[in-house]
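Changelog note: in this version the structure field was regenerated for every chain. One regenerated record is shown below for reference.
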Amino acid sequence: MNAPHHPSTVAAPDDALVVAGRRYRSRLLVGTGKYRDFGETRDAVVASGAEIVTVAIRRTNIGQDANAPSLLDALPPSEFTYLPNTAGCYTADDAVRTLRLARELLDGHRLVKLEVLGDKDTLFPDVRQTLKAAEVLVADGFDVMVYTSDDPIVARELEAIGCCAIMPLASLIGSGMGILNPWNLRLVVEQAKVPVLVDAGVGTASDAAIAMELGCDGVLMNTAIALAKAPVRMARAMRLAVEAGREAFLAGRMPRKLYAASPSSPTSGLIA
């Protein structure tokens, strides 16, 4: 499945996002649910510049129903890399079964997003079931990007199992609360040898920029774009925020100085 070319999202050649051995120019991944229709879905995805799109196999038709509109028509796999996910799964067995179905529907597609939820109220990840499912999926040949808590120990265990990307939440799925614990995210980022992408909780562009400034390799979002008053416009804003946050991280911010004001202009050589 070949990703599309979006000139406006092209980063420096040496700054590509590499997931499971494949290079991507965009560090923004977007979901395909909650839009009014597949037309709006496509418009928002294109505006975002995303090359990877997530698909909830239990909620979105990608061929399960031959008589209903299919996402495959709006977002052809020849243009976008599909990331089937296990949204709505509460056990490891359900998650594994769902992704095996996705592999069949997408002709042997290996790249998937694993999420196993703990309850219907918070949609917080069940880390025990997540670890169990990850072991089975990695052993079965899947490239697993995994949604998890912001616990650095759990993140380390998932990486040791063989997950190709760690995706800690910023806050609860669909909450729009932004990054509630930047310190834990930093711990996860600093120890990881695979990409770390913030997944869940982003509400607006500044949240995405902060995630990138913390050193995250990318951001995945759905609700923040789909439920905005103007989804396509918000998609463009998120694209710019991710790009700006990445540039700021690479540039290296000035050190914070408490009680040590420093003039913007030099004080030496003043004109008398």
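Spot check on this record: Residues 1-12 have pLDDT under 50 and may be disordered. Residues 231-251 form the longest helix (21 residues).
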